[in-house]
Amino acid sequence: LLVLDAIERVEVSVRSQWAYQLAHQHGPHAHLDVTLAFKPHLWQPNLDKLSDEVGRYDEAFITHLQNTYSESLPPVWAVCEVMSLGLLSRWYNNLKPIPTRRAIAAAYGVDEKVLESWLRHLSLVRNTCAHHSRLWNREFTITPLLPRNKPAGLAAQFHGGSRKLYNALVILLHCMDVIAPQHHWRSRLKGLIARHGGSVAALDFPANWQNLPIWQDPKPGTPKQETGEPKAKKDYSEDLLIQAPSAELLEQQLGWESVFAQDEGAKGGWGPDSLLGRASDAEVVLTRDVLAALKR
Q1: Distance between CA atoms of 105 and 159, rounded to whole angstroms?
Q2: pTM over 0.85
Q3: Cys staple from 4: which of 61, 67, 129, 134, with CB 3.0 to 4.6 Å?
């Protein structure tokens, strides 16, 4: 579940990037343009699968767009919301314009071919998790391409030639540092390893893994800078691409006031009387409200 948690966050981020770059560079219905496909014979099967996904989801925004506009499929920023990671991987893999591919990959500081490989690999890891299959010492049939020169220093964090889980964990750590710089996933993962003990060599962890920069916790209040390059790009952050537009829409359409959980401590302090009742930003379960609900 811990691995699946990180993969889901990466999936949402890449979906947003895919939709953002396609819409800005090729129009709101770029996914309907076969000329953007590297292999045209794969475009129709991918489109058919996407159409099936759109038809399967009973989402209010999909229904609204279909009832309001005469179009074979809703715009790219809507259909991306119902795409699986596997389908997203296939669409990116078959995307022909190199500038667009590079723009998507640039959000994560890697080459477009590297991102293509990572998406295929993470899709396999995600499916393994979703079916409650074993990750421990599993050898994956699809392995990720390792970066060479960019981001600086990242290549040294991987275990070359490995087919096991370790390299996927490094990918997730790198991507989490980009899309959620204040995340606690690294410490949760290391805590899980420490609690269960045993040798992680079965996952192809290198002997010196605890000393590698990718595994170091940032100092409080300091952004993670583990491989020599700035990790977070504000223009591509999850906050800017997803949370902020959603909050603005809810305010304009419904008059709602949105409060972001990460601002709780800065605005009102922590503790049981704070907005969400959390002791710190490390708490993900709203204990105060859950206990009150259970008592009712």
Answers
A1: 22
A2: no
A3: 129
